[in-house]
Design brief:
Strand content: under 5%
Radius of gyration: 24 Å
Largest sheet: none
Order of helices and strands: HHHHHHHHHHHHHH
Structural class: mainly alpha
Helix content: 55-70%
Distance between the termini: 60 Å
Protein name: LysM domain-containing protein
Keywords: Signal
Shape: elongated
Number of strands: 0
Length: 286
């Protein structure tokens, strides 16, 4: 064996050994949250936060791995279950409720909250609240340890955990809209805008506005200017919608108070960006 081949094989062995050690020391779960959720086949946290709808452009969406791509090597134990609905550990939640993952999923699809499900099975709802409180606290502990939040944020959020846990357990899972209920989405950050008020301000029908944005490649600012409408009026409508959505999510305990304050300060910027956003043609459209 020549020296070059020997070094290549030695390097490969060292790399494989290092990766195996890292996987074992990390417990297999810490670095693979997406695989955990897929493996457990469980419905996760309730309503989507406004952060997803309103501030999705602040960071790129993660690239999801292909099924089985990050499965543990043969001989290693399976990945443990991760946090599930309302922050609870799935395995402990299912054991407490005495249900399978499929049974819980069907109950949620039927519009039942965790509190209602527990009560229907003769289980003290407080047990589910305590489980949620414990899991949310553990999540904050990890975020602090990993440097994702500051000590001040940790202290502030820790004071909100009990109320948030109780709210999560009582929350009814969102149901998909019935056919025909979906309103046209006019672009990023505009999902919650009062469509009627927007169309009235611009003096356009829904189809006319959609055609200008999606087919004409225009921004809302372009459309407003073409109609002789003050762009600030449109910007105010968008800002009002974003601000109202944040207020709603704070009242429903879907976001932390410090998150709410930070995002409130960003509303004006986000609204202006949404109004100036150019709607590009979909792929393949001339």
């Amino acid at each position: 064996m020549n020296k070059s081949n020997f070094l290549e094989k030695k390097t490969s062995k060292l790399l494989i050994g290092s990766l195996s050690a890292a996987f074992l020391l990390g417990g297999g779960a810490a670095g693979f949250p997406v695989v955990q959720a897929e493996t457990a086949n469980f419905t996760v946290d309730a309503p989507t936060s406004v952060y997803t709808d309103t501030y999705s452009k602040l960071a790129p969406a993660p690239v999801l791995p292909q099924p089985g791509l990050l499965s543990p090597p043969a001989g290693l134990p399976p990945l443990p279950p991760g946090p599930g609905h309302a922050g609870q550990d799935r395995a402990v939640l299912l054991e407490t409720l005495g249900m399978s993952s499929g049974e819980l999923r069907e109950a949620q699809r039927a519009g039942q909250s965790l509190a209602e499900i527990a009560a229907s099975r003769g289980i003290d709802v407080q047990k589910i609240v305590d489980l949620t409180t414990h899991s949310l606290t553990a999540r904050l502990d990890r975020e602090l340890a990993d440097g994702h939040i500051t000590q001040d944020q940790y202290n502030s959020r820790l004071n909100e955990v009990a109320e948030r846990a109780a709210s999560n357990v009582k929350r009814t899972p969102p149901q998909p809209p019935a056919p025909g209920e979906l309103e046209p989405d006019f672009g990023p950050d505009l999902k919650h805008v009062d469509k009627d008020a927007l169309l009235s301000t611009l003096g356009l029908s829904s189809d006319e506005l959609r055609n200008s944005l999606q087919n004409g490649g225009q921004s809302l600012a372009d459309v407003a200017a073409a109609k002789g409408v003050d762009v600030q009026k449109v910007t105010d409508l968008v800002a009002q919608a974003l601000s109202g959505r944040l207020d709603q999510e704070l009242s429903e305990k879907l976001i932390w108070k410090d998150e709410y304050q930070t995002r409130k300060q960003e509303v004006a910027i986000r609204a202006a960006d949404a109004v100036q956003h150019k709607h590009l043609h979909p792929p393949g459209r001339p």
